[in-house]
Design goal:
Elements lengths: L23 H14 L5 E2 L2 E2 L24 E4 L2 E4 L9 H8 L5 H9 L4 E2 L2 E2 L11 E4 L2 E4 L9 H14 E4 L3 E6 L15 H4 L12 E2 L8 E7 L2 H12 L4 E9 L6 E10 L16 H7 L2 E4 L7 E13 L3 E8 L6 H8 L14 H8 L15 E9 L5 E5 L4 H10 L16
Parallel strand pairs: 12-18
Antiparallel strand pairs: 1-2, 3-8, 4-7, 5-6, 5-7, 9-10, 10-12, 11-12, 13-17, 13-18, 14-15, 14-16, 16-17, 18-19
Length: 431
C-alpha cells in the first residue's frame, strides 16, 4: 500500500510554513493496517506525520522533497542589559537591531507600546535614545537564531587591512585619518562592489565592532578622510561637522583664471533628476551627455524644490595664465559635488572632471590653442582634500594634511607649483 502524501500549504506572513497532518478520516481508515504492521508514528522537521502501514513486500514509497527546515528559535528570558559607551546616543530600535538582529521592528514597536521594554525603569519608544551606563529591560523574546556570518576570505580581508594601513596619516585609540586614493569609492552604490566602507570590515574585532565613516569624499577626490573607531566617537565627530567647527581645505587645479582671484561663492544647489532616491527613469536618455547632465548638481533659486544653500571661499595660489590656476578652496557647507559645481559656476571647472565643465564655453576654450590645457596633464579629477582641522573630542586639536596624489604631483611639477608655499585661504573667514 502506498503511503499517502502530505500536502505542503503555502507559507503565510502570519504563520510559519508547516506540514499539516492528514485529515482525521483518512488517518482513521489507515489505523487498522498500521496496527497490524506495528508501524509507529514518526516526526520529521517538527511536523506530525500520520501512521502508515507497510504491507509485506509492498513497494518502497518514493522519496519526496521536503520543505526547508525553519530557522531555529532562541527563547530568551527577561534580561537587564547595560548600554556600553560605544552604544551611547543610539536609538532604541538601532540598539535592538544590534543586540537582536532578527527581531522584527513591528514586534519591537509592540512591546515598547505595552511597556515591556524599559530604560532605567521608564517606558520608552523606538525613537528614544539610550545613554552609556543605562539599563535596558529586555522582555522574553522568541527570535530566530542569527544566520551564520558569511565566510571571510582570509586573503581578501588581510589585503583590505593592509591597504587601509598603507593609507593611514594619523592613528590613535579613538580615530584614524586616512589618505584616500583617487578612484576608490567611499561607500557602495549601484554597480560599486569594492569600497572603503566595505574594506573597514577587515578591521572588525571579535565582537564584530568595526571602524565607522565620519564623512565622505567623491570617488575621484583624493585626500583626508576621517574614520572613527567606535560609534560613540563617530557621533561626537559628526556633531563637530554639523556645528561647522571643522575646517576643511581643498586644493584644485582649474581651467582658466577666476576673476577676482579670491572671493566667496554663495549659491543654492539642487540635485539633478538623475540623482538621489527619486531619480528619473533612463527611458529616452541613453546618451552619455544626457546622463551626465542629469547626474550633476544644478544651480537653483531660493525656494526651489530640493534647493540647499552652499558657501565656499576660494583663493588663487598660483597660475599659468590664461590656461589654468591652482585654487585653494574652503567650503563652509557640505553639499554633494559642492566644489565641483562651484568651480563650474565661476567659469573655471576642475581639470579632469567627468561631469562638470562640458558646456559650450568650455568647448570653445579647449579649442583655443592659447587657452587650452597643456599636453601631458592626466585626464583625472584634480581635486584634493588637503587639510582637516577640528577639535579632538578627547581634547586638543586634530590637524592633518594629505600629500598630493601622483597625477596632481605630476601636474604641480610640470608647471613649477610649490606645494610648500603659504596657503592664502588661511586668511578666509570661518563663517
Amino acid at each position: 500500500m502506498k503511503s499517502p502524501r502530505a500536502r505542503t500549504p503555502k507559507p503565510s506572513k502570519a504563520k510559519s510554513a508547516k506540514v499539516k497532518p492528514f485529515k482525521a478520516k483518512l488517518a482513521a481508515a489507515k489505523a487498522p493496517a498500521a496496527e497490524a504492521a506495528g508501524a509507529k508514528p514518526q516526526r520529521r522537521s517538527g511536523a506530525k506525520l500520520a501512521e502508515t502501514a507497510v504491507a509485506a513486500k509492498a513497494p518502497r514509497p518514493k522519496t519526496e522533497s521536503k520543505p526547508a527546515p525553519e530557522a531555529p528559535k532562541q527563547a530568551l528570558g527577561v534580561q537587564n542589559l547595560t548600554v556600553t559607551e560605544d552604544e551611547d546616543g543610539m536609538r532604541v530600535d538601532r540598539w535592538f537591531k544590534r543586540r537582536a538582529p532578527t527581531l522584527a521592528l513591528s514586534h519591537l514597536a509592540k512591546i515598547c507600546r505595552k511597556g515591556e521594554v524599559r530604560l532605567d525603569g521608564k517606558r520608552v519608544e523606538t525613537s528614544s535614545r539610550v545613554a552609556a551606563g543605562q539599563t535596558v529591560r529586555v522582555p522574553p523574546l522568541n527570535v530566530e537564531a542569527p544566520k551564520a556570518p558569511a565566510v571571510k576570505r582570509p586573503g581578501e580581508s588581510e589585503a583590505d587591512a593592509r591597504a587601509i594601513r598603507d593609507m593611514i596619516l594619523l592613528d590613535d585609540r579613538d580615530l584614524m585619518v586616512l589618505n584616500k586614493p583617487f578612484g576608490l569609492a567611499v561607500q557602495g552604490g549601484s554597480g560599486t562592489k569594492h569600497h572603503l566602507d566595505g574594506m573597514l570590515q577587515s578591521l572588525a574585532n571579535e565582537r564584530g565592532d568595526r571602524p565607522v565613516l565620519v564623512h565622505r569624499l567623491d570617488r575621484d577626490t583624493s585626500g583626508v578622510l576621517l574614520i572613527a573607531k567606535t560609534r560613540k566617537m563617530a557621533a561626537d565627530l559628526g556633531e563637530i561637522f554639523r556645528s561647522r567647527s571643522a575646517k576643511k581645505i581643498y586644493w584644485a587645479m582649474v581651467e582658466g583664471v577666476p576673476r577676482p582671484t579670491h572671493g566667496r561663492i554663495s549659491l543654492y544647489l539642487a540635485k539633478g533628476e538623475g540623482m538621489g532616491d527619486n531619480r528619473a527613469p533612463r527611458k529616452g536618455r541613453h546618451g552619455p551627455e544626457e546622463r551626465r547632465d542629469i547626474e550633476k548638481m544644478r544651480v537653483a533659486k531660493h525656494g526651489d524644490d530640493d534647493a540647499q544653500h552652499s558657501l565656499t571661499y576660494y583663493a588663487v595660489v598660483d597660475k599659468l595664465a590664461p590656461r589654468l590656476s591652482w585654487l585653494s578652496m574652503k567650503p563652509l557647507t557640505g553639499r554633494t559635488h559642492q566644489l565641483r559645481a562651484h568651480a563650474e559656476a565661476i567659469g573655471c571647472p576642475i581639470v579632469g572632471d567627468p561631469k562638470y565643465g562640458h558646456g559650450e564655453e568650455d568647448r570653445r576654450r579647449r579649442a583655443d590653442a592659447n587657452r587650452n590645457i597643456p599636453d601631458g596633464v592626466e585626464n583625472k579629477l584634480h581635486l584634493l582634500a588637503r587639510r582637516l582641522i577640528l577639535p579632538h573630542p578627547k581634547g586638543g586639536v586634530l590637524d592633518v594634511t594629505a600629500p598630493l596624489p601622483p597625477h596632481m604631483q605630476k601636474s604641480w611639477d610640470m608647471f613649477g607649483f610649490d606645494a610648500s608655499q603659504r596657503d592664502p585661504i588661511l586668511d578666509a573667514p570661518d563663517e
